[in-house]
Structure formats: C-alpha cells, structure tokens
Specification:
mainly beta; Porin; ten-stranded antiparallel beta barrel; 13 strands
C-alpha cells in the first residue's frame, strides 16, 4: 500500500517539475541572432541581443565558413552560451546571394538547453564609396531540446531580417530583427574584419 501511495505522489511531482523546467527553458530559449549574411568573411565581433533571456552578450569568431560563439545570458542565475556555425555560399543563377547555414548552440547553467538549426541566408551586397551594405533575410528550421531530456526535441521555425554595414576601416556594424516568436527581437553588434 505504501508503494502505491509513493508512486501516486511521484507522478504529479514529476509532471510539475517537468513543466517548471520547460517554462524556465522557454523563457531562456536557446538561439541568439544568427548575424549571418550570405557574404562569408573572417571577423571577430561582440554582440548584444534581447534573447535568450533579458540580455545576451556574445562574442563570435569567424574564419571562412566556420564560426565559434561564446556568451553570457542574463536568465535564471546566469547562463553560459556556447555554439558553432557553418555558412557556405550556394551557387545559383540569380542576381542574389544565397548561403546555406547550419549551427548548434547550447545553454549551460541552472537551465540546460541545446538546439540545432539549418537554413538559408538570402540577400545582396551593395558596394558604395566608404561602405558596403548587405540586407538579407535568414529563415531556418531548428530542433530544440529546452529541458535537456532525451527525445524531447521541438521543431521551431526561426527567421530574422539582417543588415551588415561594412566600413572601409574594416569595421562591420551588424543589425538583426527577429521575425518569429521563437527568435530574439533585436540584436546589434560590431565586428572587426581580419
């Protein structure tokens, strides 16, 4: 009889714990803005965004098609964000630039979460005296495990509008505006082209 009572008590407690964990992870999300125009560059930058969490400070190092990300997320008691990315141009017979993108990103701390994503960055680079502008749209599909539990991946559609402004001083101003509920709303960063 005691075993039956113990099991009956454990089921609601497990459900409540899972809901609390998933609610905290949903607030934190997993992905920061991509900042991935279709133009591949070697650069090092620092970025601020409003997600995941209340504020995220992130550094991104890119060399050719590969990039590494590390950051601090102001959520829960503070989370470490780690990630890697791939961006490679796609040859098309069109007057626009397209790059295939893929990446993995995780949050480590009180709330552990991981996500995988793949998509396309579509835009065009306009070169003017002193500045080159690249507006783009970056839709992608993501698999997100926001609770760290096995076989608990959710599929999300992410999208953002972005703008790279490359100045002759090798500085790049990057802006990002999220287009989906699962994407951070706004991100901005400054990178140095190597």
């Amino acid at each position: 009889m005691k075993a039956a009572v113990k099991k009956t008590w454990m089921v609601p407690a497990a459900v409540a714990g899972a809901l609390a964990l998933s609610a905290g992870a949903a607030d934190a999300q997993v992905f920061t803005p991509g900042y991935q125009s279709p133009t591949v560059m070697n650069d090092l930058g620092i970025y601020l965004s409003d997600g995941p969490g209340d504020l995220t400070l992130e550094g991104i190092y890119r060399s050719g098609p590969l990039g590494l990300r590390v950051g601090y997320v102001d959520a829960a008691e503070g989370l470490l964000s780690l990630g890697g990315e791939l961006r490679t141009p796609v040859a098309v017979a069109a007057p626009i630039d397209i790059a295939f993108t893929a990446g993995a990103q995780g949050l480590i701390g009180d709330v552990d979460a991981i996500g995988l994503q793949a998509g396309l960055s579509i835009g065009e680079r306009f070169v003017n005296p002193g500045v080159a502008l690249t507006p783009y749209v970056h839709p992608r599909i993501a698999l997100i495990d926001a609770g760290g539990q096995e076989d608990d991946f959710d599929t999300e559609l992410l999208a953002e509008l972005g703008l790279d402004a490359e100045f002759s001083s090798n500085l790049i101003l990057r802006l990002s505006i999220g287009l989906s509920d699962e994407s951070p709303d706004v991100g901005v960063g400054l990178a140095w082209r190597r």
